[in-house]
Amino acid sequence: MRRFFILLFILLLLIGLVGCSSSEKNDPKEVSESEKTESQVIGATEPSSVNATSSASVEETKLTSDGYVEPQPTAQVIVTIPKPTDPKKDEIKEWSLVVKGKEVSAYLPMYEGYDEPALPLLLIGKEFGAEVEWLTDTELSLWYGNDELYINTEYENFCIYLPYGIENPIREMIDEEVYIDLPSMASAIARWNGASVSVDSGNKVIRIY
Hints:
By secondary structure, the protein is α+β, with helices and mostly antiparallel strands. The protein has helices at residues 2-25, 28-65, 87-90, 121-127, 182-189, and strands spanning 96-99, 102-104, 119-120, 131-134, 139-144, 147-152, 171-174, 177-180, 197-200, 205-208.
């Protein structure tokens, strides 16, 4: 009987030892400590990598500011695009000449001191039916029926009547054409059945009719 109790005691002792051993392996405190340690390791690893990146960038900035050669910036191409222009605004409108209701293609030179261009006397005379008779290289007559307008380019004012108030009359021969100022033109053609000149400064149109 005594042996039985001894064996039972040894058996219970063995069972107790086995239970303690298993409880130690599955002790929640130990597991939490293990997880805590693991989490600390993981937590320590991730921030360190982030800090390493930022510190590397800071260190690079310090190095460049301490005298290291900074990388040269890449070349930039700057393209200037001009602003669109308004053709109507920038266009300089030329004067046009209308004789007896028909627009005539003619060279109309501008002269200083005048707001209107000089007018081609011979061309306008031909549009009215006048005839040009060259007498010499510097003399000619413009005939409108029996009316003669004598012109001599060697004389002052070309022998063309000078209207009152014109201080700087235009008299010029260009390519066998006689150019005179607008007031002188109005005076010269007035004998042609009362022909007259009108000026539309806004549209830059000169009408002779």
